[in-house]
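Researcher:
Attend to token order:
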Amino acid sequence: MPSELLEIANDIVECRACPRLVEWRERVAREKVARFAEQTYWGRPVPGFGDPRARILILGLAPAAHGGNRTGRIFTGDRSGDFLYAALHRVGLANRATSVDRGDGLELRGAYVGAVNRCAPPGNKPTPEERDRCLPFLEREIRALGELRVILALGAYAWDGALLALAALGHEIRPRPRFGHAAEVTLGSFTLLGAFHPSQQNTFTGKLTPEMFDAVLARALELASTA
């Protein structure tokens, strides 16, 4: 990992700025759940992961309590990650279709995965103040990913977080674009795309299907190759 991204990752892992989130992530790591009782949880903020030359940034809400908060890698070890990485593998952005832990050999090609909030939040709901404290990490990642052209926001929360980060980086956002699946807006040198989050609530009900997600990824690849 280049030194700038490594510095950002180290700063993320050491962050203790939000007392509520620190208490929650560490309590989950101590108490665990029965199916992971023998595992050692990460229990810290989770940095971004992927190709430093990525042209596509895939942005989620936050690590899952027993996913990224357990494994130490975003979208790893939970059902949302199973859906996401299988899709990335189908379109050639990942070298394997599964992601179970940080040492499983997964590599991303042309893509980087991150989140608006880096700590697992209670009820999967960070407060606006917790979001705002965490956003500078995303802003730094966007600057450090020098070939970035497309931000794929998974869900409305990630969409709003991406807009806030881009505004902080000097992009004018008027009028404020609304989130939707396959929504698309150009902001300076970037294109922001929307997709429903690959949560079980969406994938089990058919609100988000593999075909729908593949279509958005295909559009992201098209934009990344022509920008």
